[in-house]
Amino acid sequence: MSRFRKVFAAALVIAATAGAAEAGRLGLGREALPEEVAAWDIDIRPDGQGLPPGKGSVKEGEALFLEKCAACHGEFGEGAARWPVLAGGFGSLKSAAPEKTIGSFWPYASTSFDYIRRAMPFGQAQTLSNDEVYALIAFLLSMNDVVKDDFVLSRDNFTAVKLPNEDAFYLDDRETAEKHFWRKDPCMTACKDKVEITGRARVIDVTPDDKDKSMKVE
Amino acid sequence: MNQTAKGLDRRRLLAALGGGAALGAGAAAGIGLTARPAAAAAAKPDPAITEVQDWSRFLGEGVAAHPYGKPSKYEAHVVKRDVEWLTAGRESSVNFTPLHELDGIITPNGLCFERHHGGIAEVDPAKHRLMINGLVDRQLVFTMDDIKRMPRTNRIYFLECAANSGMEWRGAQLNGCQFTHGMIHNVMYTGVPLRLLLEEAGLKTNAKWIMVEGGDAAGMNRSIPIEKALDDCLIAFKMNGEALRAEQGYPLRIVVPGWEGNMWVKWLRRIEVGDQPWHAREETSKYTDLLADGRSRRFTFVMDAKSVVTNPSPQAPLKFKGPNVLTGMAWSGRGTITRVDVTLDGGRNWRTARLDGPVLPRSVARFYVDFDWQGEELMIQSRAMDDTGYVQPTKAELRAVRGLNSIYHNNGIQTWLVRANGETENVEIS
């Protein structure tokens, strides 16, 4: 066996032991370091998994909210201009104009921690400290009448907070509730006697203007 | 104006429709409507023919003029459009694919609608990483180079925003299929089956859900059941042959076939494996469907069978009497389109359209009805069916189950009113 062949054979053995030691693995990628996982793994679940150490009061949250949030969301979370309303809207979900806020609609407080920490303030994401996020949520919970004004939110008491609308969600049930949409042989001829127009987008007139198209049939 | 279809010549319409059960070709021929008029004679010579055009005389640009080509300048109107009043700002907003100008099933990359929650992230691919952590044997980090060394596959899928047609729940609102149905695109993805990446990390036995997360300023995150993740999801880096566009998640996005567009996280940077869903903002506050009783559906992942006639439509009116092409698109997140029916008389009579081109699972399919039009008022609808036996419902049928407030998943049948002058409107009918 030539020297080249020996080296080649040795390389094959290494490949076999390293690559094929675990069947089916490609051996691509590398182990994530704990610091790397800690830097990116910022998600929070309703059972509290992921909550960092820390705490914040309603009072601290109010000051922070005025400084960092109120320009868009209003001083009390009522929403400025067209920006999202964060508080209120209780009892509106069955109405013609439901107001879906943290208090009236959201099922879990954990969602507010996950979302505010990863995405808010809009345009300045991931700039809030954990204590600041706790304080802002405490303030928003108080604006939604979920906690009292002297409340201090922390990792220890977080999962004890229940939002009013938690039980009003259920799993996709289209295959039972809309079972009648699976139907054999839909009607093909003489399906109805008359047809009337009941609504016209043209009357509402909110479509962005296009260049005037002259209507001329040839 | 009389808004019913009384003025319609019923026999003529049936003839145009190719005859229902009651009217055969003979009957249609008997009333003389299938005969084509002789081609009109030109009154005088056409200068487009008799005069030498510039492009026939002078040289055009050379091959170095356009290293990356663009459409003809005469197609400058074929663009994405947005509706400013829909959202508070442009960075968390949506625009619309110009469906009325497209044909076939593939959406050109530059015309694919956009939906961002924190603007378009401009990610340096050399600095892009994909992390897999959570309930796995090995928490891993991949570079784009790593991902491109994995076995890859090519698949054509539609991506439809859950809110497509959402502005129409309360009635006909926007005039044009670009606006009512344009939150959809259909491209060929090249990517790695997500299953391969998860196997590379090694799933723990209690792995039931994954969370996918974007690297943009919205940090978009959604929960996906492990069965779907192991079934047909892809980690895609190319669309229609070239790298993803920045606005479509360059350099990496997840493809979740048949499921609502929000879950197709762009700029994908992390996949966490867990034993339960995360209930992130985009699956609690948003992308939950409020019903009339005040309760809400959650995890309404699948996009049901749907279709729309793209021509004629409000942005593409009828311009000629005589032969015309009616065309549209149909799709279903549950499987493959098996049939599309079209009516020209508001749902009284239907005929089965001709599907043409590839008809693939969880992809857009193209349909046609070639018809004659003599200036009568039309009320055009299309009705899609898929291989699960699901039949696209009317909007009234949807509202009967869901009420008016569910925002998402409006796959109700669309009606276009074609008036005598060819002008076409978005309407609702009884």
UniProtKB/TrEMBL annotation, chain A:
SUPFAM superfamilies: Cytochrome c. The keyword Iron applies. It comes from the Bacteria. Keywords: Heme, Iron, Metal-binding, Signal. Residues 56-144 form the Cytochrome c domain. One of its GO terms (molecular function) is metal ion binding. The keyword Iron applies. Residues 1-20 form the signal peptide. This is Cytochrome c.
TrEMBL record, chain B:
GO terms for biological process: sulfur compound metabolic process. This is Sulfite dehydrogenase. Transmembrane segments: none annotated. InterPro entries: Ig_E-set, MoCF_OxRdtse_dimer, Mopterin_OxRdtase_euk, OxRdtase_Mopterin-bd_dom, OxRdtase_Mopterin-bd_sf, Sulfite_DH_SoxC, TAT_signal. Its EC number is 1.8.2.1. Keywords: Metal-binding, Molybdenum, Oxidoreductase, Signal. Residues 300-414 form the Moybdenum cofactor oxidoreductase dimerisation domain. Residues 117-278 form the Oxidoreductase molybdopterin-binding domain. The keyword Repeat does not apply. Residues 1-27 form the signal peptide. GO terms for molecular function: heme binding; molybdenum ion binding; molybdopterin cofactor binding; sulfite dehydrogenase activity; sulfite oxidase activity. It is an enzyme of class 1 (oxidoreductase). Its cofactor is Mo-molybdopterin. It comes from the Bacteria. PANTHER family: SULFITE OXIDASE, MITOCHONDRIAL, SULFITE REDUCTASE.
